[in-house]
Amino acid sequence: MGGLEPSWAPLPAHARPGGVPPAEDEAADGVLSGALGWLDAHLEWFAPHRWEEYLPRRPFRPGPLLELLGLVRLLDRSGRLPKDAPFPSRALDLAEHAAAAPDFTGSLRRADELFPYHLNLIALLELLGRPQPALRALGEGLLAAGAGGHARPHKPPLGRIELRYFLDRGGFPAPAPLPDIATLFRECLPALRPDVLHLTESETYALTHALIYATDFGARPPAVPGEPDDPLELLETVRVLLAVHLSRGSLDLTAELLLCATALGVTADPLVREGWAALARARRPDGAVPSPVHRPDVLAGLTGDKAAAYLFGSCYHTTLAAGLAAAVRAERGAGARADPGPQLPCAAPEEIRRWAVQAVEAPDAAHAPHLSALLVLCVQARDVPVLTEVLRAAEALGRGNDPVVRAAAAYACAQTP
Description:
This protein is mainly α. It is built from 20 helices and no strands.
């Protein structure tokens, strides 16, 4: 019987760090300033008609604008950039124009799976001083009639907490079948003690989004149910996932997990410092943070509007995610600086093996913060030989009884012929 073939994904260049990472606030401020400059310079591409000249039409046409208004609201809430400043005003002009388009009202009336995003755009426009009374009245009428059944108990928990967050933030009356945020959060992934060893990328996004909604982007603590230690357990889950996706060079999830760490009160931590350094290091000279699909070689072969469209389409979301995380951190105020810890290995078998050898030959408590994340990486790559070496390191570090270590050891045993 043959064993499993390990499956390690190729690493982007920015996943291999070097040198001492800059202090958290210094890196985050640079990320935010760069993101705002780039978004301002490329604002025209947020308009649905401009996007669709070269990029595929999106199911919810003003989707990028909706994300942008989320950042505008945070900047206004924190006092960093008032909503009547030139950049937010121009963004609001574009969003107002999109909401006034006939197809927006028509798609709102369908009350399909995109209905919550229509309500969210209407709500954000009103919150930011551009009320849409006719659209609001239509949305409230459809909500009251139960159109689409979006509030019903059989709908997925993440969709329900997302809808409740949009309604609460926008002052829409919530339908009777839709519980409050705290109740819905208890049904969502962050409150269910997720198994980090087997958490998929889409499930990790579900975790970050539920936390973002439950905390209103860090404005309030989440109502974590259960035992007194559960908030600490959730924080440890976020830290492990941050290390996993930082090691993989996944900038989208690194940004979202940094936002979640800040929302949970962690601003000074070696992993957080390394995460901000990764976002700062990955920035293009123009301030954009490239997404996983961005390919410089493709961009190099394009010119004019085609190049501008490709750059925008492959950078805008990750740039926004990084900007949101940095804005939340700035709103919280400067925290204490964390001393740089040992460098987190990349998600590459040779680097993880090197870490394991060092941990066995010279056990040091400084190795421990990376242990769970490296176990996750090995299990998800189905690399039992490297996993076995990391488990040996866990024993040398005195962590053999940690729940994640025991679960990884059981997985390795089950996979061993």
